[in-house]
């Protein structure tokens, strides 16, 4: 789900009436759609997470906590931990790499900004799958990255980066970087020039101005960016699959596996619900602090 | 600040290289006459020709276009309707409804995929094109809704009142006055919905059947096995298409202003 970012504001009410019978009738398709395809699936997933499976992988409707007990197993805790670790690392890297870019574009002369923004939007809109695929040939032992490093005498022999944790990290950062840059750009763009000038005139150097004036003012953008990078990267499985070669499993891969080869839907549902809880907590935490809105 | 600017400028240039180098590499090597795709051999259009003879890719493309078109139409109806009705009427449930509609935009795709999968399975619906379209519409229509809501915020209520005073029925007022006013937002929302649907992999992965594999699903399967120059060729076409679509939506935005 590229690009966004949510507003839950109801427009300011002015002289509008409550819906009559006709109004509710018109609202019915929307309500039915949400009830069927948002509410019901989540409820069923929740119910599934307390079910059991028989030897053939069919779901047995029998209440038990067993699936959740299984998640507490060190094997799965480790995978949850690893997912959080990779997602956290991705977020930090995206922030460090992306912040200067967002700031630079936001403060660029107004005439150049649309071009720079467009340059940023193009990778944002190109399918993450294709962008990840593009890295595969670059990171192979006989690929361009290894050859370049070798030419620069940074490495003694061809280096296989693909199917290693580093490749997964490169893939994740590459996938999510635009999601960090855009919200920071939005809040950096709003900073008045006079504020920066005032800080400089009052004797703060550029670095102090950056740390004490600009950084605090872009906080909402940072939180929004963290939300948009951290949460989706926890559950991503396609990038790890392609770049990690199935060796760097994260929650997403485990969940996918339960619905695929392992055929243990109730356990997969329990993993999903746990992940959903994790998502809700981080969303809650970051959303109120972030400037989460439409781009 | 000049120093900071220069540093950040250089950094930004490097990041742009990081962004574009893989894409450029992908495009250039789609014209390379080598199966391994690591060393430049010579220029060829062979992979583009082979692309048209590859049944899985062509079928995937067809499936993707069908799904994206139907999804876009449904997303326009549902998204515009939802935005208008939530704007038009004042009632307490409006806020929770709008929050719930936006939920599929933010919920991790894996969760959405598996919850729809268990839902379809438990009501005994077999997977196929309809389930893929339903899934896509569910996460695409909020984008139309968001675009339309943004435009509605600037709507003068007198516009509808005038139409009603002049004898239009509420439906006529909506169709002849409000919809034309909303058109730019509907178009840009629809473009977004179309692009998102075309691009979606994870949710589709769970609700597709063997016969309804969209292009990203097919490509994912191929990419898992490693490099395939046909995928490079296809990616190049897709990137071209994405850039055109993006320029078009920018143009629509400008026309609106």
Q: Structural class of the helices, strands and pairings of chain A?
A: mainly alpha
Task: Give the low-pLDDT segments of chain B.
Answer: none
DSSP strand count of chain B: 0
Q: Enumerate how many helices of chain B there are, as a single number.
A: 11
N-to-C series of helices and strands of chain A: HEEHHHHHHHHHHHH
- Give the name of the CATH architecture of chain B: Orthogonal Bundle
CATH topology of chain B: MetI-like fold
Summed over residues and divided by their number, the pLDDT of chain A gives a mean of 84
Number of strands of chain A: 2
Major pleated sheet of chain A: 2 strands, antiparallel
How confident overall, as mean pLDDT of chain B? 89
- Name the CATH superfamily classification of chain A: MetI-like
CATH architecture of chain A: Orthogonal Bundle
Share in helix of chain B: over 70%
Give the CA-based shape of chain B. globular
Largest sheet entry of chain B: none
Describe the structure concisely for a colleague.
The complex is a heterodimer of chains A (295) and B (257). Chain A is mainly alpha-helical and 295 residues long.
Describe it.
The complex is a heterodimer of chains A (295) and B (257). Chain A is mostly helical and 295 residues long. In chain A, 69% of the residues lie in helices and 1% in strands. Chain A has a single domain (72-287), classed as MetI-like fold (Orthogonal Bundle). In chain A, strands 1-2 form a two-stranded antiparallel ribbon. In chain A, helix 5 (128-139) runs parallel beside helix 11. Mean pLDDT of chain A is 84; it is low at 1-14 and 291-295. With 257 residues, chain B is mostly helical. Chain B has a single domain, classed as MetI-like fold. In chain B, 79% of the residues lie in helices and 0% in strands. The longest helix of chain B has 34 residues, at 55-88. The model of chain B has no long low-confidence stretch (mean pLDDT 89). Chains A and B meet through helix 1, helix 3, helix 4, helix 5 and helix 9 of A and helix 1, helix 3, helix 4, helix 5 and helix 6 of B.
């Amino acid at each position: 789900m590229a690009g966004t970012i949510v507003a839950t504001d109801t427009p300011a009410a002015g002289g509008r009436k409550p819906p009559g019978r006709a109004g509710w009738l018109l609202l019915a398709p929307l309500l039915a759609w949400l009830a069927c395809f948002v509410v019901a699936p989540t409820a069923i997933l929740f119910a599934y997470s307390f079910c059991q499976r028989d030897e053939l992988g069919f779901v047995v409707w029998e209440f038990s906590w067993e699936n959740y007990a299984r998640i507490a197993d060190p094997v799965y805790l480790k995978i949850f931990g690893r997912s959080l670790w990779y997602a956290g690392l991705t977020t930090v890297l995206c922030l460090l790499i992306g912040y200067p870019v967002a700031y630079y574009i936001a403060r660029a002369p107004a005439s150049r900004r649309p071009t720079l923004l467009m340059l940023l939007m193009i990778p944002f809109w190109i399918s993450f799958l294709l962008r990840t695929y593009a890295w595969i040939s670059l990171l192979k032992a006989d690929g361009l990255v290894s050859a370049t490093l070798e030419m620069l005498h940074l490495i003694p022999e061809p280096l296989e980066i693909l199917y290693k944790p580093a490749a997964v990290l490169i893939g994740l950062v590459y996938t999510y970087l635009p999601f960090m840059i855009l919200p920071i750009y939005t809040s950096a763009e709003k900073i008045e020039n006079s504020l920066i000038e005032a800080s400089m005139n009052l004797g703060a150097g550029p670095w102090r101005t950056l740390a004490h004036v600009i950084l605090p003012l872009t906080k909402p953008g940072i939180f929004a960016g963290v939300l948009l990078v951290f949460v989706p990267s926890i559950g991503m499985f396609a990038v790890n699959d392609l770049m990690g070669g199935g060796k760097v499993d994260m929650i997403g891969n485990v969940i996918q596996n339960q619905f695929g080869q392992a055929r243990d839907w109730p356990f997969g549902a329990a993993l999903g619900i746990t992940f959903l809880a994790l998502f809700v907590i981080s969303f809650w935490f970051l959303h109120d602090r972030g400037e989460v809105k439409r781009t | 600040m000049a120093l900071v600017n220069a540093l950040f400028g250089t950094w930004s240039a490097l990041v742009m290289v990081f962004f574009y180098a893989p894409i450029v590499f992908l495009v250039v090597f789609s014209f390379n006459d080598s199966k391994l795709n690591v060393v430049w051999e010579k220029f060829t259009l062979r992979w583009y020709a082979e692309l048209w003879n590859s049944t899985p890719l062509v079928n995937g493309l067809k499936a993707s276009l069908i799904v994206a078109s139907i999804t876009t139409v449904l997303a326009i109806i549902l998204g515009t309707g939802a935005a208008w009705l939530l704007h038009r009427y004042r009632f307490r449930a409006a806020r929770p409804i709008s929050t719930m509609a936006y939920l599929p935009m933010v919920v991790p795709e894996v969760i959405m995929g598996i919850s729809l999968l268990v839902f379809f399975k438990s009501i005994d619906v077999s997977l196929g094109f309809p389930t893929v379209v339903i899934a896509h519409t569910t996460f695409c229509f909020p984008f139309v809704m968001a675009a339309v809501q943004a435009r509605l915020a600037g709507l003068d209520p007198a516009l509808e009142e005038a139409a009603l005073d002049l004898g239009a029925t509420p439906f006529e007022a909506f169709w002849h006055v409000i919809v034309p006013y909303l058109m730019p937002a509907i178009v840009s929302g629809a473009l977004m919905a179309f692009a998102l649907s075309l691009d979606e992999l994870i949710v589709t992965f769970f609700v597709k059947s063997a016969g309804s594999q969209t292009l990203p699903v097919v490509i994912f399967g191929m990419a898992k096995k490693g490099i395939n120059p046909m995928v490079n060729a296809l990616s190049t076409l897709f990137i071209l298409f994405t850039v055109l679509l993006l320029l078009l939506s920018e143009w629509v935005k400008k026309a609106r202003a």
